[in-house]
Amino acid sequence: MSDLHTQYPVVVIGGGQAGLAVSAQLKAHGIEHVVLEKNTIAHSWKTQRWDAFCLVTPNWQCRLPGFPYAGSDPHGFMLRDEIVTYIEDFARHIDAPVREGVAVTRLRQSGHGFMLETTIGEIAAGSIVLAVSGYHVPKVLPFADRLDPSITQIHSSAYRNPDQLPPGEILVVGSGQSGCQIAEDLHLAGRKVHLAVGSAPRCPRFYRGRDAVDWLDDLGQYDLPVDKHSLKEGVRKNANHYLTGRDGGRDIDLRRFALEGMKLYGRLKDGRGTSLQLGDDLQVNLDNADRVYNGICRMIDEHIARNRIAAPVTPHYAPVWSPTAVPTELDLAASGISSIVWTTGFRSDWSWVDLPMFDGTGYPTHKRGITSIDGAYVVGLPWLYTWGSGRFVGIGRDAEFVADHIMERSNASHADAYRAGRRELSQDTAREAV
Q1: SUPFAM superfamilies of this UniProt entry (predicted)?
Q2: Are 275 and 187 in contact (CB under 8 A)?
Q3: Does residue 35 register a pLDDT over 60?
């Protein structure tokens, strides 16, 4: 089994920023552990991001434990390869005990701990931390396999650049962060883009003299616990706001893209061959995204007024374009569309976790990462505890909370063992006296 032991007090599964953050906190507590990564450190950043990808949050929010961003552009937005370097440098900084190329194929309870079946043998653990996010399997709409085979179809996780796609027009399905940014990437390259718009909200990039993220941080939005949010746990199902850090950061305005020639449609509902059926909800979806955008602006306005902050006045967003006679059917061949990019997210796959710790939707039941199974933890999920949980800004706090709980559990276990030993010694003494 190479240099791996067959037993550890703690096994962390996943070698991305979440697993490494947990490792840093466990090391701070002096807790022996190993991090198992089935691929390589920061694998998804290396392999599931397009060439022009960059963060949508400013670099100053990169705050892995004891390793904040130290570059010269705190208000810039790291590119894909810079993000990978940041995570790899963090792993070296903490000397993380990562074992790459070791996949966990089954996790089950065993005695008072857990047994991990891996690609190189079994490993026992007293506690386990699942730091594998919730984005496991690329998801496309169920009718994708009914579309004409002449249409090139790829998922956003496989998209790299416009030249990757064959000549012709391109349909991007989905308007979350990835969908809008990929649509922009193609649009800027001069490709003719069609975009099926969903219900994702949007956020201003800059407002009243600062990045909106700076204002939202001042307002405590990234520290708001899930149980204090108006939607409670329901917020975990919300799509992220779309905006971009590209070229120093800017809004993504789909209406402006439409003025520039991008074709916008409502939500994609069904399809067969080269014929697609679309919803009539484009206007509603655009209006709702703008409502969220201006709602964020109003929140910042109130904060500025309440605290008497000197800040330039910026008008709220006013639509620059509105749809008329939006089609509810689209013929791919007649429209010259040769490719579809599915930016429809991922689904979770916990099938290898043989523990009764999931709800009816397959989501791990937990409180701040402490699951319903004693000794089992999750880290790195969106809104695990706060809005910052799925981001570099909040992952360290979640990792610290989980590591503290593991330490307390370990101390309690040692205390129980000590008390049990004392009782056994007392009983032996009593028997000797008789």
Answers
A1: FAD/NAD(P)-binding domain, Nucleotide-binding domain
A2: no
A3: yes
